[in-house]
User: Which sequence fits this backbone?
């Protein structure tokens, strides 16, 4: 290729067409989480042009990247959580987390925390859900290298309008230049015997074995309310939901329902639940929980009381509630 041909090949469109291309490339990178190579393939650009457009998008303010420094955290609450509940670490954001916008801020902080883990994990377990979907979205590319990401609990049927439920492990793996290991079974099945049969399946048994071997797990907690993914997906029946509430359930961890003390409230449902048992969380080097918001106060406090969390990423209001109820055991 001549110098003139090379200059022509590297030339980008100008004016309005360039702006449209810049926005298209930025959306692919930051909303669809595509790599520079993928973007180049889809747009007909080369990787250098993709990088140039993304840098220009940042320079012009088309893309704004928010960093959450420690100065924007609550170090006193973090220290109190560590000391009161025997945690390895805590991240507490000052803004109260309620609703989708608050969840995004929490997810950004979690993504930054995971990207800073030392040593970088080579095996990593994840759960699914809206919060975990947001964490996967904000997790930086290159957070790990060659990591194997294992889904540690069964999944749910697709929920209309929510595409985050079942893609978490895949996104974690892609951004960590690794591979993901799905657990292709329901979170809760109809009979305990069905769970036993499924767990004896060679593929399912292998995934559960891998899940038990990971030393770091990232998960969120589910509130027990009408917005529950387990309820809306049909994994949990309405009458079972009402029974759980009557028995004192405050939410779920990995699909397993606990009370204010962090204890299983319904042995029958628990025996129909596929995934890591809660006792396994106590033996992990890092059991990283990302959860906040008024609807999760009780389940966060219960999980802390039971010693099921070693690292908590939350907001100030949730942390304060847990500390105010530290002796409610």
Assistant:
């Amino acid at each position: 290729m001549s110098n003139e041909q090379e200059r022509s090949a590297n030339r980008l469109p100008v004016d309005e067409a360039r702006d449209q291309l810049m926005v298209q490339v930025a959306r692919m990178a930051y909303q669809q989480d595509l790599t520079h190579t993928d973007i180049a393939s889809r747009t007909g650009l080369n990787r250098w042009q993709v990088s140039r457009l993304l840098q220009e998008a940042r320079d012009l303010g088309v893309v704004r990247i928010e960093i959450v420094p420690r100065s924007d955290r609550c170090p006193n609450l973090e220290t109190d959580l560590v000391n009161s509940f025997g945690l390895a670490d805590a991240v507490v954001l000052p803004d109260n987390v309620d609703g989708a916008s608050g969840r995004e801020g929490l997810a950004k902080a979690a993504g930054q925390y995971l990207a800073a883990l030392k040593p970088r994990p080579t095996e990593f377990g994840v759960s699914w859900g809206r919060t975990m979907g947001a964490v996967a979205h904000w997790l930086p590319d290159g957070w790990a290298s060659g990591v194997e990401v294992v889904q540690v609990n069964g999944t749910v049927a697709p929920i209309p309008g929510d595409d985050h439920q079942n893609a978490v492990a895949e996104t974690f793996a892609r951004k960590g230049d690794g591979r993901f290991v799905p657990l292709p079974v329901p979170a809760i099945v109809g009979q305990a015997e069905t769970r036993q049969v499924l767990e004896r399946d060679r593929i399912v048994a292998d995934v559960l074995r891998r899940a038990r071997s990971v030393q770091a797990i990232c998960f969120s907690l589910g509130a027990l309310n009408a917005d529950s993914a387990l309820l809306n997906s049909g994994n949990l029946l309405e009458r079972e939901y009402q029974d759980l509430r009557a028995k004192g359930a405050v939410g779920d961890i990995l699909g397993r329902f606990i009370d204010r003390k962090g204890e299983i409230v319904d042995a029958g449902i628990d025996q129909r639940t596929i995934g890591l048992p809660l006792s396994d969380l106590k033996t992990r080097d890092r059991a990283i929980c990302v959860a906040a918001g008024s609807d999760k106060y009780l389940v966060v406090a219960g999980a802390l009381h039971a010693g099921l969390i070693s690292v908590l990423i939350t907001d100030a209001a949730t942390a304060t509630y847990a500390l105010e109820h530290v002796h409610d055991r």
Notes: Strands lie at 89-93, 123-126, 148-151, 179-181, 216-219, 221-223, 251-253, 256-258, 286-290, 311-315. Residues 1-9 have pLDDT under 50 and may be disordered.
